[in-house]
């Protein structure tokens, strides 16, 4: 049901792109709501099945964690990345650690070694990772 609502909202969004900005904004809210409902359904499925399975971190990501975070924080950062910035990302259910490396490096660099900021960037990546990638590129951190 959540997936059907999400698909319907996407179709409305497509049709509205040629209309006024206000209309697109209203449809955007519907799309966000549908996406949130779809994510809730996915989270419930994941909780029931133990999915998605973590894929681990690449050596490059581990090095970046070591560069940005203190030794006591590193294990936590590794766990957060593997569980919240991995196959949990939209459209990344089957991704490998290598395929996830770029987005993980982006959230790490944008965090500047701050755990609170790391969580904020990961939250944004779970909505739309393109926003994180663009922010990292704008800051020359990608």
How would you describe the overall organization of this protein?
This protein is an all-alpha fold and 142 residues long. 75% of the residues lie in helices and 0% in strands. It has 6 helices and no strands. It has helices at residues 2-16, 21-49, 59-68, 71-84, 97-111, 115-138. Helix 1 runs antiparallel to helix 2 (21-49), helix 3 (59-68) runs parallel beside helix 5 and helix 4 packs across helix 6 (115-138). The longest helix has 29 residues, at 21-49. The radius of gyration is 17 Å and the shape is globular. The termini are far apart.
Separation of the first and last Cα atoms: 37 Å
Helix content: over 70%
Radius of gyration: 17 Å
Main sheet: strands, sense, barrel? none
The stretches of 5 or more residues where confidence is low (pLDDT under 50) are: none
Strand percentage lies at under 5%
What's the number of helices? 6
Round the mean pLDDT to the nearest integer and report it: 85
Structural class: mainly alpha
Q: What's the SSE pattern?
A: HHHHHH
What is the count of β-strands?
Answer: 0
What is the 3D shape?
globular
What secondary-structure arrangement, pairings included, does this model have?
Blueprint: H1 2-16, H2 21-49, H3 59-68, H4 71-84, H5 97-111, H6 115-138
Helix pairs in contact: 1-2, 3-5, 4-6, 5-6
